[in-house]
Amino acid sequence: MAKRDFPIEVTAPDIAPYRAGNTGVDYVTTFDSGKPGPHAMVNGVTHGNEICGAIALDHLFRHDIRPVRGKLTLAFVNHAAYRRFDPARPRDNRRIDQDINRVWADEVLDGPGDTLELRRARELRPIVETVDHLLDLHSLGTNCPALLLCTGQAKETELARAIGFPAHIVLGQKRRSRKRMIDYTPFADPATHRTGLLAECGQHWARQTAVNALDTTLRFLRGLAVIDTAAFAEHVSSPARAPQRLLRITGSVELQSDDFTFTDEFHGLEHFPDAGTVIGRDGGADVVTPHDDCILVMPNARATKGMRAIRFARVVTADQAD
Ligand SMILES: [Zn+2]
After folding, report:
1. What is the per-residue pLDDT for 173?
2. What class, spelled out in words, does domain 249-317 have in CATH?
3. 16-243: which CATH architecture?
4. Ligand 1 centre and the CA of 203: distance in Å?
5. Average of per-residue pLDDT across 109-119
6. Does 321 have pLDDT greater than 70?
7. How many whole angstroms from 149 Cα to the centroid of ligand 1?
8. For the chain, what are the domain ranges?
C-alpha cells in the first residue's frame, strides 16, 4: 500500500572528491592534529538514503573544519548505496545487499557472510577499532524531532549531556544480535571509556534535518574539545544550549501480521498519559500503550510482519525548560 511521502528539500552532495581519502580505505579520511586527544569519528550515509550525514561531512570538508587536538575521522559508510540515491525513488537505496548497521557483532564480522555491506564493514573495522568516540548520523521516515540514541550506559549519557544537542536522548539497550555500529564491542563495553552515539537528525529529506546533522556533529566535536570555539561558533546554527530530556525505552512492538495500521499519523515523541490507549491495529488485535506517561519513539508505519513498528519510552530526567 503506497503511503504519502515527503518532499525532497535537500540535495545529495557529490562525494566523489572524498573517495581517495588518506587512510587506504575508500571514502574514509582521518585528520590528525598532531596533539594528544581523543580520536573522534563521524559517519554519514550508513544508510544510503539518509543524506543529512553526507551534507554535514561535506560541510566539514569544504570549510576546513579540522581537529585542534586528537584525531577526526570522517567516513561515508555505505557510499555505494548512497551513490544510488534517486530523488524519484528516495527510499530505495537504504542498503544494497543488507543493512550495514546490523552486522557489528564479532561473530558476524568474522563469519562466512559475503555481502557488499559486510565487505565494507570489514574494511572499516580496523579504523573503528582505533576510535574513542563515534557519532553515526542518521535520519527518519517521519517528521520527528532530532533524537540521540545510545545503549543506555552512563558514559554515553555523560557525553550526550556534554554535547547538549539534540533535545531528546533515548536510552535503549545493547543489542545481542543484529548489532549496530554503536553496539560494536569496544563501545558496548562499560569497562572502556569509548562511546558510540547514533543521531536521528529528523525526517530524511527535510532541510532542517541537514542543519541538525551539522549541529549535532559540531556539538559532538566541541564537547570533546576536538574543534575550537571559533570553528564551532562560526558554523553552528544556534550557539545557545537547549534543555535536554532523557527517555528510557520500556518496550517495543514487533508485528505479528502484514496488516498493521496506526490509529493516527504518529511522528514520534507523542505522549499518552494513560496505559492501555489504543495506538494501532496489528492483524485485528489492538496495539496499546503499556504504561502511563508513555512516549512513542520511532513509529514505522511501513513495518511488516516480524519488524518493529514502535518503541515505547518514559522520561527519566528533564532539564528545567522555560
Ligand atoms: Zn539510519
Report:
1. 84
2. mainly beta
3. 3-Layer(aba) Sandwich (3.40)
4. 11
5. 98
6. no
7. 11
8. 16-243, 249-317
